[in-house]
Amino acid sequence: MKRYLSGRHLTIAKTLALLLASVSPALAEMTPPPPPPGPIYAIPTRPDRAGRVLAPVVVDGYGPVRFLVDTGCSGTMIGMDIARALGFIPPPVPTVPGMAMGADVTVTGNMMRVHDVLGPMIMPTMKVSRIDMGRFVAEDMVTPVLSFGDLSGAGGVLGTNSLQGKRLSVSFRRDEIKIEQSRRYSPTGYDSVKGRVHPTGLVIVPIEIGGMIVNGLVDTGAERSMFNPVLLRALQERGKPASLVGNIEVINLAGETRIGEVFLLPRVKIGPVSVSGLPATLVDAHAYTALGLEDEPAFILGMDVLGLSDGFALDFGTGSLHLRMRMTASGAPPGPSRLGDRGTRAGRD
């Protein structure tokens, strides 16, 4: 769902609501590509690479293939290569009045309106009978097909509609993820942040930024964290302004672009993780409106912050985020450390 571009480019496209339609695919045989070398499941963001959480899945008997686990995306989506392997034939570009790509319109026929971080888009759909995720199965789904964009090597996107009532556990140290049933208790050795499950299926947690408590979307599909203009103004009013350091190009799945400003934020604290000078992108995004957060300070918690932990668990039953900090050889949490190339410092309070 994301394309990471070096330097000043960054894709933070985001799907937040899906309207469903249908099209009938036929099964075709094709060998899935082999996984690349190095970590392949739990990859934190670093200055030289994009953070990702990838799960092995089987789609209607095809696979296993790796899907990007995107907790900022309410719907599961299939990449075009896999869709074609399953017999999908792309429909012609819609010619119905009001059905232009990128327009906010009503779904017609086998097309679907998808809400992206920059606004709605129109995408083709296909029926999927079964998606196997280890011990769990999602059945009888109608999913949009990603006919454009770059999934950074993933074959599709696993959204929160496939994770309802489950807990996603990610270990960066072990390079593994687990999908299991929701639990009321915290994993051993983890600090917990109690949040809530939004009606879209996304998890919102409280985050402290510059001494303020704000609502934050936990988004494993975002390589870098983002915030809205209301938060920028609130920080200025509190005498803790963010520092502008440059611009970045935001690109959505349709290739549409918008320039976002990058600011160094005052201290960002979520559970045991505390970061000073975090580079975050200011975007007046459609995402905040879709979540009902457009009139209040809001934050999108990306893999740059989540990746500072040794691992995390996000529970879609309880709305809780559990974080485990890295330990030193002596068994103590590490002291402040550098993150990125802009003087960011991170540590545990």
Please, could you describe this protein's structure?
- The protein is 7% helix and 41% strand.
- The protein is mainly β and 349 residues long.
- The protein has 2 domains: 9-169, Acid Proteases (Cathepsin D, subunit A, domain 1, Beta Barrel), CATH 2.40.70; 186-348, Acid Proteases (Cathepsin D, subunit A, domain 1, Beta Barrel).
- The longest helix is centred in the C-terminal third of the chain and has 9 residues, at 229-237.
- The protein is globular and about 60 Å long.
- Mean pLDDT is 77; it is low at 1-33, 95-108 and 328-346.
Brief overview, please?
This protein is mainly β and 349 residues long. It has 4 helices and 26 strands. The protein has helices at residues 80-85, 229-237, 286-290, 303-306, and strands at 9-10, 42-43, 52-59, 62-69, 77-79, 111-116, 119-133, 136-146, 156-158, 166-171, 176-181, 191-194, 196-197, 203-209, 212-218, 226-227, 243-251, 257-265, 268-270, 273-276, 278-282, 298-301, 311-315, 320-324, 337-339, 344-348.
State the CATH topology of the largest domain. Cathepsin D, subunit A, domain 1
Alpha-beta classification: mainly beta
Q: Kindly state the number of beta strands.
A: 26
- Which architecture of the largest domain would the CATH scheme give at its second level? Beta Barrel
Proportion of residues in helical segments: under 10%
Task: Report how far the terminal alpha carbons are from each other.
Answer: 34 Å
The domain count comes to 2
| Oligomeric organization of the protein chains | single chain
- The fraction of residues in strands falls at 35-45%
CATH class of the largest domain: Mainly Beta
Gross morphology: globular
Can you identify the CATH superfamily of the largest domain? Acid Proteases
Largest sheet: 13 strands, mixed
Q: Which H/E pattern describes the elements?
A: EEEEEHEEEEEEEEEEEHEEEEEHEHEEEE
Ranges where pLDDT stays below 50 over 5 or more residues in a row are 1-33, 95-108, 328-346
Please, what is the average pLDDT? 77
Gyration radius (Cα, Å) is 20 Å
Total helical elements: 4
